[in-house]
Write a structure and sequence with these properties.
By secondary structure, the chain is mainly α. It has one domain. The chain has helices at residues 2-33, 39-65, 67-75, 77-82, 84-113, 117-137, 141-144. Keywords: Membrane, Transmembrane, Transmembrane helix.
Length: 146
């Protein structure tokens, strides 16, 4: 089960990063060019929200079936925090990804309440770009690119 969930989580991550980059760039372009917010902008932001939430759910399942979780149960948090690889996979990566999804969700929710285009793009640009930065900061690059 672990290898299947790991495979899905790893490949879905490429989609998440791609869609999050597209949504952030789209929001920034819309903000700076002061164009009207349209249905395609809504679809991009909604698709980004959905894709990131699916990735979070897959990640939660992976967290509990991964061998790293058994290390946490058997050795305790002291050993996890002393090992940089374990700390990345058990603490840093999950926490930062949860924060990123929360930021994306907040940005999506706040942008829906705005009535004009510029504030909509501003909310999306701020929160989606912050979410993207959080995601990029804690991707296990050594594993991900190999």
């Amino acid at each position: 089960m672990y290898s299947t969930v790991y495979f899905i989580h790893s490949w879905w991550a490429y989609l998440v990063v791609l869609v999050l980059i597209i949504a952030s760039v789209n929001a920034l372009i819309g903000l700076f060019t002061k164009r009207d917010y349209n249905a395609n902008d809504f679809r991009i932001s909604l698709f980004t929200l959905i894709v990131s939430h699916i990735q979070l759910l897959i990640g939660i399942v992976l967290f509990f079936v991964a061998p790293y979780f058994q290390v946490l149960l058997n050795s305790g948090m002291g050993e996890v925090m002393g090992d940089s690889t374990l700390r990345l996979y058990i603490v840093e990566h999950p926490l930062m990804m949860i924060i990123a999804v929360v930021l994306i969700t907040i940005g999506y929710s706040k942008h829906k309440k705005k009535l004009t285009s510029n504030p909509k793009f501003k909310m999306l640009a701020i929160f989606y770009t912050l979410g993207l930065l959080f995601v990029l900061s804690r991707i296990p690059w050594a594993t991900w690119l190999s």
